Amino acid sequence: MNKIFETPLYPYARNRDQDADHPPRHKVIVVGAGPVGLAAAIDLAQRGVPVVVLDDNDKVSFGSRAICFAKRTMEIADRLGVGQAMVDKGVQWNQGKVFFGDRKVYDFNLLAEAGHQFPAFVNLQQYYIEHYLVQRIRTLQADGASIEIRGRNRVTAVRPHDSHTALTIDTPDGPYSLEADWLIACDGAGSAIRAMMGLDFIGRVFEDNFLIADVTMEADFPTERWFWFDPPFNTGQSALLHKQPDGVWRIDLQLGWDIDKTEEQKPENVIPRLKAMLGEDTGFELEWVSIYTFQCRRMARFRHDRVIFAGDSAHQVSPFGARGANSGFQDADNLIWKLQLVLEGLAEDSLLDSYDAERVAAAEENILNSSRSTDFITPKSDISRIFRDAVLDLSEHHPFARPLVNSGRLSLPTVYDGSVLNSGDRLPGADAGTRPGAPCPDAPLGDGFLLPQLGHGFTLLTLNADAPDVVEEAGLTIPRLAVTTDADETGALAARYLGTAGSAVYLIRPDQHVAARMETYDDGAIRAALRRAIGQEYRP
Amino acid sequence: MTSPLILTPNLDRPDDVYAELLAAHDGLTKAQSDALNARLILILANHIGDQATFIQALTKAKGAGSNDRPHDGGHD
Q: Cβ contact (<8 Å) for A394 and B39?
């Protein structure tokens, strides 16, 4: 077994708060050192907000878990300092095969759009991402940032108050108490914070079980995604084979909801299934096996006054389409700049309600996509199975049926259409992909790319347009990023940001979503858009 | 472009088309027939292309059934 699992990354160490007479108050406490909690903490630290991360463990998560990371996640991770590490280690792939019953029905190539710094997605074990994020925290600490991870610090009580949240924390040295102005609960699907606050999920759609195995193989399988519908080795269910770094293959076998988990996990039951899947003669070693139960559901609200839920603690989806960890990164990306503005007194705390509105809408979209995939993969009625099988049979012969095959729609970031932070679209003729609420698509710019130029705050992006170099409004200083399409060799910048317009001015949020766009700089409109984007023009 | 669903006679030789449809199901089991129908619907849906036209067709098909309105009050 890989050493990465065994080495404590943030071993327990006694901290000064444990000897305090009165519970020390922190601005922000993050509970959970998974990818979402670590990303949130790094974003805070990079913004100069002191943060303490509490985790009941002291190591990376065991086994591969989340493995497919989308471009938007790498873009967010890049702003946090770990994007390139993910690409360097991750496995990139574009090709795949779809099987139905005992036969292959078609091959595909995803043909990812060109002109982006990051690939459409990489496969990478979750523990590597956690490892990179912890390393990044160590670098921030060395640079003097106020960010701490406290291993083996388990929250055992949460008491929300009007002005703060009080926590009791258990450690190997016994319990101690803390207070937080803001608490971010990133403690996963089984969130202890959520349970202790007596909060529950709504919209429980379905439940399913997966046998997840990491295997190392001697066989030289191609770097492709293979998906089976109703294969002979897993009748009536599905299977997925995906490549990860280090010669590790990830196998997901759907088991259905009515199973004996202990029985299914026994090697004498797992190995014959894998042999049937990989071929009798293929040598492999089982590195990790686990049964994963998922439900498709979300909390009614992600913000509960001073306690805010992000990632799996707030919402869960099926694994089809890689919408768990990817959407968790987007949660953190959406939340942290807002929290910074609230902490600095530049925005009312009602700005945090827009986190709730925008990310609840995102969770709904993910649950919808994930439910549709599940309905295709596991037909719920005779007639839905008849249509599903018809689609697969047709897909073998006719390309038109292939877009109907749904083994998971790859995670794309949510456009915050209708958000109260958006201003009206005033750029006729431009692509819908950059409308207010949309995440900025990347594009080549000079020797590099557009997104890394956007920084951590609001940006005024101008294309072929005049504007002041800096706009000061509502206590914020907004730098301008001036670009022209003279040197836009690929045409991607113009296609994505201008369309048929000759010029454009974009107000871009710190999470790289478009707040407003217009053809030429309109001082009054930009200032109003900025106030709107920090919640000042909106009162519920 | 949305093209309105054609609900007036549009087949040159309706008897031939109907006979072809039945002939295609000749000798098939119920399961095979159901599968054939499903494939046919998908091919035709793709041929129509326009979602609004397809939904119109779906709505008209639903509304014309004589045996599938279970709770319409009924009569003895």
A: yes
pLDDT top residue among A409 and A426 = A426
Quote the CA–CA distance of A177 and A156 in Å, as a whole number: 10
Q: Report the CATH number of the A425-533 domain.
A: 3.40.30.120
Q: What is the pLDDT of residues B29-56, one digit of tens each?
A: 999 999 999 999 999 999 999 999 999 9
At the fourth CATH level, the homologous superfamily of domain A3-14+23-91+112-203+297-365 is: FAD/NAD(P)-binding domain (3.50.50.60)
> What does each C-alpha distance from A476 to A341, A434, A457, A530 come to in angstroms?
9, 23, 9, 9
Chain A: residue whose CA lies nearest to B36: A390
A104: left (phi over 0), alpha (psi -120 to 50) or beta: beta
ipTM: 0.89
For the segment A56-104, what is each residue's pLDDT rounded down to a tens digit? 999 887 777 888 999 999 999 999 999 999 999 999 988 999 999 999 9
Q: Does A386 contact B38 at a Cβ distance shorter than 8 Å?
A: yes
Residue appearing with tokens 């492999």 = A284
Judge whether A335 and A40 are in contact, CB under 8 Å.
yes
All structural domains of chain A with their residue ranges: 3-14+23-91+112-203+297-365, 425-533
CB < 8 Å to B33, chain A: none
The residue of chain B nearest to residue A392, with distances taken between CA atoms, is B39
The C-alpha of A386 sits at a distance from chain B's nearest C-alpha, in angstroms, of 6
